[in-house]
Amino acid sequence: MGSNLSFPEVEIPPERTYIVTGGNTGIGYYIAKEISRMGGHVIIACRNMSKAETAIQQMQEEYEKEFKEKQAKLSETERTEPRRLNIEKMELDLASFEKTMRFIEEFKARNCPLHVLILNAGIHVHNKEMTEDSYEMMLQSNYLSNLLIILHFLPLLQTSGEDCRIVQTTSAGYRFGKLDTNNINAQQSFSSITNYGNSKLFQIMSMHWLTRHVKDKSVTITSCHPGYVKTQMTQGYSFGRAMAAFSRNGYEGATTIIKAATDPSYKGETGVYFSDCKISSTTSYPKNIERQDELMTYSFQVLDKYLPRDIKQYIDM
Questions:
Q1: What's the domain count of the chain?
Q2: Could you give the 3-state DSSP secondary structure of residue 14?
Q3: 232 Cβ contact partners less than 8 Å away, ≥ 6 residues apart
Q4: Which pLDDT value is given to residue 8?
Q5: What domain range includes position 250?
């Protein structure tokens, strides 16, 4: 895996709650499994509840197998029994604002604290597709719906205790993107790579904007590039096949996100970009304040009817 791809083994209190979107497969699967293995309360949020249940069962089985293999090296008096991983599932479809709001309201109704929000779910489509809300599929699923979740959960994160974090799984593919409000919704043209890059670029730009405009700075927000990870999503593309020899597996891809979400040494680090399990730098493009303002003006207009009524109490707009 490489010595640079690792995260510290920390003991997470069982009352510390993590949401992992897309936690039933790929990178998200390993994020959820490892954080729950370290003791955290994990909620995986995804579209297919049957697949989510299967994933939870598989995580438990893998954990128990790995636990017993370690126990076998100990004396009989030192051995203990494996515990039940504290993992739940919730339904979330990022391609629908209505269904995203349903997830948001259902979580709020739990009256449960939220300590870390890991926005990992994402898609990469070959051809232009529009959502039921009439937005380009990757724009809405990878960016707009994630932003909506952040805006609703910020007050909850701010009141859940110390060291609350928002962690976004982004991509170095942001370099292929650009902000063009005349074509932001693929009104004029569509390119699979460019539009995917746009959605990841906008994640990073919104991170910088929020870092500046959120009134309570106690909640940190970071963006993580997991490296090129071999998944079902990427294998249908010619560049995916070409990159296969250099790709990481799901666990390796998850390490950077897990470290950003759990490493105590990163407490208070906000508005930063992680790559290869360390803070890295981006190009100057997403750091441009005028572009950030232009993007967020558009984003707030799109999300207007779904925004929290009291949003101006915690964000300078």
A1: 1
A2: coil
A3: 25, 26
A4: 92
A5: 17-44+92-307
